[in-house]
Write a structure and sequence with these properties.
Belongs to the binding-protein-dependent transport system permease family. HisMQ subfamily. It is a multi-pass membrane protein. It holds the Pfam family BPD_transp_1. This is ABC transporter permease. One of its GO terms (cellular component) is ATP-binding cassette (ABC) transporter complex. This protein is mainly alpha-helical and about 260 residues long. It is about 80% helix and about 0% strand. The protein contains 10 helices and no strands. The protein is flat and about 70 Å long.
């Protein structure tokens, strides 16, 4: 038993050196690949979150103030997207969506296009994010004191101007917690794009692990990178929330 412990003690520095070499930025280390994958993941998450936010604002407005047809369409969209597993949606939208776009281009006499993985990833995850953002923003709008909306209508404010000047600023403090969760989910959902071969962080980690057989080292490193991204996001989200709640009483006081 003591002899086994001595062997492990002797091999421990070698294992540590091996892990450092594998995670080095310069070859033969794979650190640059992991950082490139992290950059791709952040780009997709930012694009998908922005697209989802735009869809969510339009969807919430349509659900609350749209015609019956618009409300029904938004209800079908949000129900379908939230009911189907995200991995299935990604596969469906990525492959079927690309095929439908190219078929439509052929029908109108245009050449087919090869959609980049970055654009496809942003589009697919943006549609998924939009369904959840719709409900988050709809709930935040309903939390606005109705007197503010009624006052804007009484002064004859057009719907578009009321959205910019009254609704969006007033609903922001109520929407930030839910939107913050959606942002963190977007950073994690980028890992699902590995199934379609896009080189985000998880795909780069899998390739590094398969080449070196050091799966534990690389997946721990990927987990640390995701954790650092989450911690940094929490700092930014906290500052945005304090900015959005400026002039409002602290939460502790509102609960009294």
């Amino acid at each position: 038993m003591r002899r086994t412990t001595d062997i492990e003690h002797l091999l421990n520095p070698l294992l540590q050196t091996s892990a450092v070499e594998l995670l080095a930025i310069s070859p033969p280390g794979w650190g640059a690949n992991l950082l490139r994958g992290l950059t791709n993941s952040i780009q997709i998450a930012v694009g998908a979150f922005g697209l989802g936010l735009a869809i969510g604002i339009a969807g919430a407005w349509g659900k609350l103030y749209g015609s019956p047809v618009v409300r029904d369409l938004m209800e079908i969209y949000t129900t379908f997207v939230r009911a189907v597993p995200e991995l299935v949606l990604i596969l469906l939208l990525y492959y079927a969506g690309t095929d439908l776009i190219n078929r439509a281009l052929e029908q109108f006499g245009y050449a087919t296009v090869d959609i980049s993985g970055l654009a496809a990833g942003i589009g697919v995850l943006g549609i998924v994010q939009g369904a959840y953002a719709t409900e988050v923003i709809r709930g935040a709008i309903l939390a606005i004191p109705q007197g503010q909306i009624e006052a804007a209508r009484a002064y004859g404010m057009p719907p578009g101007k009321m959205l910019r000047r009254i609704t969006l600023p007033a609903m922001l403090p109520f929407a930030i917690p839910g939107l913050a969760n959606l942002w963190l989910i977007a950073t994690k959902d980028t890992a699902l794009l590995a199934v379609v071969g896009f080189n985000e962080l998880t795909q780069e980690t899998r390739q590094a692990g398969a080449t070196t057989k050091a799966y534990f080292t690389f997946f721990v490193a990927a987990g640390v990178l995701y954790l650092l991204l989450t911690l940094f996001s929490n700092v930014i989200i906290g500052r945005i929330e304090r900015w959005a709640r400026r002039g409002m009483p602290p939460i502790a006081e509102t609960g009294r």
